Amino acid sequence: MIVRNIRARCLRWPTVQQRQISSASLKVERSKDNSRFDTMPKKEDLQFGITLSDHMFTAEWNLGTGWEIPRIVPYQDLKISPAASSLHYGLQCFEGMKAYKSLQDPECLRLFRPEKNMARLRSSMERLSMPDDSVNFDPNELTACIKELVRVDSRWIPYGEGYSLYIRPTVIATHKFLGVAPPTSLLLYIITCPVGPYYKKGFDPIRLTADTPFIRAWPGGTGGAKVGGNYGPTMIASNEAAKRGYDQVLWLFGEEKYITEVGAMNIFFFLKNKNGRNELVTAPLERGDILPGVTRGSIIELASTWGEFDVSERNITMFEVQEAAKEGRLIEAFGAGTAAVVSPISCIQFNGVDIEIQATGKITKRIWDELIAIQYGKVDHEWSVKI
């Protein structure tokens, strides 16, 4: 144990200046094969995460030398050691972003708050104890590389509201070591795929169940980081929910039944509290079991500017939601995330009883409309970054 701790500290104290990710040194190798694009489905037939675009971004990091030259290359399989620690100990994290074609001008490409994704990627890497000099990449330089990747594959971005190019930055440990330790080598790669609306039935409300014995995350765990280990264990609960006719699982924690997230999204409730004030409520980040969603944060900021009701990040339990519903104070509920943007909720099963919720509500629709307007360039806003 003493040896391991000394080794971990050494990995975080480099003795030489390490190379950083630099967009100026980005090398681009364009694909000469058009067959993949020619077989892309019609945009109405796109399934989320199935169709991958022509190119990908790669950058390797090694202890002692730092980040190697970043590259955009034709989409291809990865080659890593079977002993890579990402495969054995879950040393991997990722992000979810989108690029959009402006509805006003299809030649104008946009990202939505990319600086937030860069900050969260660094936070996730830090949570996994990836060495400091890998974590401390320049977010502006990586964003510039992402912009170039989007330009290279711009023809893969479907035009129209609800359509976009999904961007998946991923960091994996390539360290060949069958032991639990901070990695000495990493691979950062970014793949993209054209997508349509996350839910094929569109903006129709979803039904949730909170009746599951499983727990997604807990204080002190990794729920506040975007790591693969948060998602794999949730599939059994999601499959069981689907068999019972529900779209997603509403994740609770503790005897108090604190509400955390819904599926892979953050969740909001719009209700009249016991003080008689209308309030938009979502769970707080302070416990560390809630992912700091970019859409979540944007909704909080956006709704706060309206000044029409209270906007709160506080602990809320299913018992409070149940009571509000019985007393006619529960007005709306919706999930929020990059993939779906906003998903209205019409039902939550709790202790075997379906709590029915009016959907789609006015606040839910208003948030959807304003976020979409920003993302697709219907309005000028600092959150929408032109490429």
Question: Can you walk through the features of this model?
Answer:
By secondary structure, this protein is of the alpha+beta class. The protein has ten helices and 19 strands. It has two domains: 2-195, Aminotransferase class 4, branched-chain amino acid transferase, N-terminal domain (D-amino Acid Aminotransferase, Chain A, domain 1, 2-Layer Sandwich), CATH 3.30.470; 206-379, D-amino Acid Aminotransferase, subunit A, domain 2 (D-amino Acid Aminotransferase, Chain A, domain 2), CATH 3.20.10. Helix content is 25%, strand content 27%. Strands 1, 2, 3, 4, 5, 6, 7, 8, 9 and 19 form a ten-stranded mixed β-sheet that branches. Strands 10, 11, 12, 13, 14, 15, 16, 17 and 18 form a nine-stranded mixed β-sheet that branches. The model is unreliable at 1-15 (pLDDT under 50).
Please render the helix and strand layout as text:
Elements: H1 2-11, E1 27-28, H2 35-38, E2 55-62, E3 66-67, E4 71-74, H3 85-89, E5 92-94, E6 97-101, E7 109-112, H4 114-127, H5 132-135, H6 139-152, E8 164-173, E9 185-195, E10 206-209, H7 235-243, E11 248-253, E12 258-262, E13 266-272, E14 278-282, H8 294-306, E15 310-313, H9 318-326, E16 330-337, E17 341-350, E18 353-356, H10 362-375, E19 384-386
Parallel strand pairs: 1-4, 10-11, 10-17, 14-15
Antiparallel strand pairs: 2-3, 2-4, 2-9, 5-8, 6-7, 6-8, 7-19, 8-9, 11-12, 13-14, 13-16, 16-17, 17-18
